[in-house]
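Section 3.1: Structural characterization of target chains.
Under the original work plan, the team committed to producing a structural model for every single-chain target entering the pipeline before any wet-lab resources were allocated. The record below documents one such target. The sequence was received from the expression subgroup and is listed exactly as submitted; it comprises 1043 residues.
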Amino acid sequence: MDLDPQAIIAQLNASPVDRVAALRRLKNDVIGDIQKKTLWVQHGLIPHIVKLLLSNDSGNNANGKEARQPFLALDTPAVDETARLQALQLLASFANAGPAFLLPLFAASVLPAVLGESCLQNDHPEIVLAALRVIKHLAVAAASASAHSPISPKSLADIIFSDSYLKSLRQILLPRTSDRENEASITIVAYLIRTLCYEERHQTTLVDSGILDALATRIAAFAMAEGYVLPNAEVRARIEGLGEYIPETPISSGSLDELLGAIAAIITDSPFRVCKLIYSPSIIAVFPNINTDDGQYPDTPPEFIILPGLRPMKPKGPRRMDSVMDLLLPTTPSFPRVLGNGGGFSPPSAQSSREAPNTNGRPSSKLQTSLVSWTPPEENTAHNVDHLGDVESPLVPWLIHLVRTRTGSEALMAASVLTSLFKTGFVYKSREASIGLLVVPVLLELLEDADANIKESGNGWISRDARTKLDVIEETPAVLARLITDSESMQKAAFDCGAVKTICKLLKSSYDTPLSTAESRPWSPNGDHIGIPGSIASECQLGDEGQHPQLIHHRRMRETSLRALGALATFNEDFRKAIVDQQVVTCIIDALNPFAGSSKHTKDQDVLHHSGSRSKTSSLEQNPVSVIVAACYAIRMLSRSVNTLRTALVDQNASEPLFRLLRHPDVEVQIAATACICNLVPDFSPMRDVSIVQIVQSIILTTMFKPLVDTGVIKVLCEHAHSMNSALRLNALWALKNLVDSASIDHKKRCVEELESGWLVRLICDDTEDEALFSAKTRSERPSASATPDVMDEDIDMGFVHEQNRPWLASSLYKATSTTLKSDIRILQLAESQLETLKELEQDPVRKARHDDLAIQEQGLDFIRNLIGGAHSSSSSDSANDTMEMIDYLLIALGQDRLFAILTSKLKPKVLHPFSRRGTSGHETRVLPPQAKIIEAVIFILVHIAASIPRHRQLVIAQTDLLKQLAKLSSSQDREVRVALCHLINNLTWQDDMSDASACSQRATELKNLGFLKKLEALSQSDDELDVRERAKSALWQMKQGY
């Protein structure tokens, strides 16, 4: 070391001029030399540099009105600012040296110092930019940190996205003087959001702080700069008071991909956050929908702006102002929607939304594995929102145009934002086919081009261009998976473009590509200073070297490829067969294991060992949680097949690693594995030939079911059904429901014993999540709760809560960025009202808790239904005897009277318990009607009981209160409820033999007295559904035979 450490540190504590001189000498000494950086860390330099950032901020301007002081002036304040700039640049160099330097930097509290007002709110753009570069380098290093490192992207996001620093980030994004430093600062802020924001709490915070609006303003500015402004849009915006929200054009469009990526990271697939984007004042001003006075919007004056909304319907007739942006797109043929949601909230079909990965266009640790599968009609948000509008925002065709005209990361991020709009229902349904033709091929072309280019460039893992291409390879499959999930037409478009072959090749390469030579830490005569814990201060020693960048790329590519394969295998059997034919099942199974194949793992370890890497992490080659969850998702989709594909899974012994994952320490893995078990244990087949079905069932029972049962899957699933995690509890019940459907009576009884009859009653009877939420709220408001002890035992609900008790609702959904109050602007008043409604529907914890409770209750009731029904209940006399025995067993285990009382309660409207309004007396009650899915489950339990022996039919007919409630449901709007009711009447009036004639006549007479005869006559004559009419006729005929 040429410089004297003691002399340099003394200079840093001397006069401002000496500090600047010392910092410049340090910069010249360490930049580009990692060995010298290591030595300076060991000499304790970093805390002294940080101290300079915490000195009095004489150059900071609190009110923004004082003139900026020049850096080259000789007065003390300017010298202090120069020292601050030099210190930040020096810290950025240390942060850029890799994950090993995270430990000393964080131990010296670099991040709070850099995030402080003296740096991020400094008057000098150069200082702001230098501070942001330090943060960016820390984020890059954290992404490569070892798995057990306390410094991770998640912990970094918790600090950066805290309320203390969001104000500074938002100010950087707001429109200011356009210069290179400001534009570069905006790009870095967008990069930080894009790479660190992947948790909902961070996304919500960024929306509430106004950062999403600020990002939307930047996007609108790019649109104006490129000339993508609708005719007269600016004039119309100024007339309606939006003139101040028309942004200034940026000096360049170089950060478009980062801005779009930041927006995509925030909004993901949240309808509220997507709506917040398209209702942003700048987006409304630049991309307006104009009322053309065609009579469709009588509440809006002609030529005034109207709001786009959920589930827009494309207008017929001549081209309107809101579709002028479509002129940018090529004409595509129109096809009817084949299948899938394609927009809006999760449908009730478990075949679609339940299996959909919830990703945001980049690697994530979570996939949707439960709870979203069950959406009660009245809980479906789209139905609860008042008419938001039926037009589509011009932002949609503009994004499609960007996908087709931009390249690389810009096109990918535009597709990610477009996917969020499509998945949440803000895109015309008729666009599904055109998006499949215009966007899906572009995504696959991006993937193939980036992969080809990176192979040509060799192992250049350091260059910026190579890193951009790697990002495209990692993120494109995730965006594609989000886009095509639940859309059969888009899946076909992807398949026709060779998606299966392309994605499978990527998955294989994540295992087969050899690692490049790892960079080793330079030798130091003092070692790494990692010896006796506590012997040396943390700020004076290096930490873990982190993970090999190529291994990180392999994992991310593996995860997103698995997601894409799972999305492709959602519906079509041919697509699943094509995936199996690519011989990637072994790769998918390997992704379930902590290590990606023992041989490959050993090979990678040898490469690192011989290359001189001395990283101290022992888990470099481990599959992270996100990869394992994605592999579970892919297997769950492939296991929907009952022919070749299940054979492929059996050959690879998929059940063994899945069973181990049920005991994984991470609950997200347990949830994913349990959801996967749901598809491996049921005994079903779409074929109608009984003999073939029996052969297939026999094979499945011996190859999948029996090994799982023998390994103790029943015990594990029953334990998970007791979990405090509602998602795990739901999936465990779902798997048990499927398992008992084909199980022997001994296994069924064992399930009930392991689950415990008392707990099963709680699952189908109690509102566990709702009660837990209510209890927590009650404890926090103990004084007010004591006044109402008489209602504490009633059914719980918090659906009607006073505004002061709604922490999820902000006082204003817009952050003021202008002198004009937004409440004075008509269009923003409408937007804020609609946003508040959406936010409450989406974020209300009570709605979420009740949604979870109802989903679990439905699966619990279906579990009982399968216990007493089963796949073989009518195939032989032995099965009939087993059914009778199982019904009697359940009536004893659960209690006959208690079971029928629970079933009756599920058919009655529920009186909800709201909190009292502050400042008011008394309580306002609400009544929740019985849920269609719950009603259907209850009726089919009764159907199975009535399908047994006459004694059980007599038992059902004796439940007068229950039958009275059923009679009221004959006019249910749900078709399945009416069909189930006809099945029940049919079974109750069935006569086994002549000895049952008298009892059958009695049952028919009782049903007639309860009004079922007239109701069946009405259904058989006037029901809109043919199936209901035919079922009702059959039940009516049989009922009349009985009396």
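The chain has 51 helices and four strands.
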